[in-house]
Amino acid sequence: MCGIVGYIGGKNAYPLLMKGLKRLEYRGYDSSGIALIQNQKINVYKKKGKVNELKVYCSDKDVSGNIGMAHTRWATHGEPNDINAHPHTSMKGLFTIIHNGIIENYDKLRRDLALKGYTFYGQTDTEVLANLIEYMYVKGESVNAELAVRMALSRVIGAYGLVVMCSEEPDRLIAARKSSPLAIGIGQGEFFIGSDATPMIEYTRNVVYLNDNDVAILSRNSFTLKTVDNDEEITPEIQQLELSVGEIEKNGYDHFMLKEIFEQPKTISDSFKGRINPVTKEVFLGGLSEVMPRILDARRIIIIACGTSWHAALIGEYLIEEYAQIPVEVEYASEYRYRKPIINKDDVVLAISQSGETADTLAAIRMVKERGALVLGICNVVGSSIARETDAGIYTHAGVEIGVASTKAFTAQVTVITLLAMRLARKHKTISDERYFSIINDLLAVPDKIETILMSHLKIRDIASKYTTSINSLYLGRGYLFPVALEGALKLKEISYIHAEGYAAGEMKHGPIALVDTNLPVIVVAAKDRYYEKIVSNIQEVKARKGNIIAVITEGDNELRNMVNDIFEIPKSDPVLSPLLAIVPLQLFAYYLAVLKGCDVDQPRNLAKSVTVE
Ligand code: G6P
């Protein structure tokens, strides 16, 4: 979602901030803006649309200055236009701010401020906050900008990652965080601010991730950290950035999504590397070792997640129930947090999240923690909010994922949850040695098998080219491949805007079959497993109604090859691991279809990479 970048130091801020905004584009946004301090004056420029449009707009403006901040906005309050774009300036022009998150009580604050004579030019909650800070500053005696910010934030309900400039204190930036990430990069006589670390990686390795309620006051040579409600200084905890510039560049690929699809052989092996003993083949999950006794005593595991992570959770449910024989429930975090769920002390809750910042997942974690359950996380982003707020967890080690449509993070999540299921099954003695070693050995072979699938990418592109005029599509799967059908459908709709419905193949007769005609592509995930005969029957039913069938089949399956219109072949594997293989051609299919339709695959319309508002 929205992106923040800030700079204070000796360099020319404008090029650095614009480069930072480009880096943050992957998060999803619909307008952008910049503010620069020059000769005690704050120049603000903002524009609807892409960062390039802002750049063109700024080309004849004064963009000098060594202190500045910039923002990409993903609209929540008020339509995406030039006026509602950030930065926002208070009525008297004393404060300018950029803000990620939502001020939930903004309407009441706006009405209160209106009674005090404040007027507003736009519809955003951020403008209200700028005015509230100004009001605190103007009405109070000996209130400096920092105190005004802290006083205003103490009246705010909601989430924020923000940066504030005050025209009367033009030598500083003030940054604050609550439920919306903010990182401060520490340089020599300079500081960087980012909603993530990507804008600052070539300048510094030393970073402080703000905690909730932290307020950072930055001048060129000082970094003071306080909290919203406490004036005492606290010592910032400096961490080392492990990110490299190469990781956030396309490295010759046309799109990040394609690069990330092709990275999967490596990211999958990174996610199991060091966790499977090369000799004994036993699984070791260091992040869980301290809490393993509680996990083994769990009467139930509840998995909470959103989007693609929720699909990985479904595969986890099948695996853990089948092999570790622990009851599992999978819940959408956005539903779970508002239900009145029954949570017992011997339940274990597992949150899955690529970004580790998804607002609904985070809120659900906080809710279950209050009820005393052990909360585990499977996250990709190291040091993210979910990673920090869970009791223990496993990182997926998929590396930075920039494409909005999640690909390598999904396969890493599925790999990690497979390891977890195997570990629990082994401990509970609910899996035979033979079955266990066969699954582990097959898992080790998955990266090479994915390489084989990737080699057929041009064939997949050719098949995709036949379907560029489709409006609807249906994805079917059974068992472990049902979540793959859901995930394949999600990929297609996210980036190509073709309506795609994922369904359990057995449910087809209860509705979706009514859609089948000669125009409807039906993508059936039909690898050889114990459901195979059943899914062949479903294919026959579609065929009888003249549906266009594309099937993901196991190599050498001549029966299906001759029955369907198009095929994506995947190598033979243990059926419980077939999701890791079967999803790859579906990712490529969605990618090529979207590219052939001229869609912006890395930044699909309306979507955000990290959903930090509910
Ligand atoms: C957004 C992203 C999806 C992702 C979902 C959950 O919608 O576009 O790719 O699956 O959020 O995100 P998380 O970071 O919690 O896995």
Which descriptors apply to this entry?
single chain, 8-stranded antiparallel sheet, binds 6-O-phosphono-alpha-D-glucopyranose, alpha/beta, about 625 residues, 7-stranded antiparallel sheet, globular
Question: What would you note in describing this structure?
Answer:
By secondary structure, the chain is of the alpha/beta class. It contains 19 helices and 25 strands. It is globular. The model has no long low-confidence stretch (mean pLDDT 95). Bound molecules: 6-O-phosphono-alpha-D-glucopyranose. The site of 6-O-phosphono-alpha-D-glucopyranose has 15 residues, from helix 9. Residues 306-309, 353-355, 358, 361, 404, 406, 607, 609-611 line the site of 6-O-phosphono-alpha-D-glucopyranose (G6P).
Q: Brief description of this entry?
A:
The chain is α/β, with parallel strands linked by helices.
The distinct ligands, each listed once, are: 6-O-phosphono-alpha-D-glucopyranose
The number of helices is: 19
Principal-axes shape call: globular
- Biggest sheet, in brief? 8 strands, antiparallel
Q: Residue share in helices? A: 25-40%
Strand numbers in spatial order across the main sheet = 3-2-4-1-10-9-11-15
Q: How would you classify the quaternary structure? A: single chain
Give the end-to-end Cα distance, rounded to a whole number of Å. Answer: 11 Å
Number of beta-strand segments: 25
The amount of beta strand, in percent, is 15-25%
**Structural class, judged by helices and strands?**
alpha/beta
Rg over CA atoms, rounded to whole Å, is 26 Å
Low-pLDDT runs of 5+ residues are none
Mean pLDDT: 95
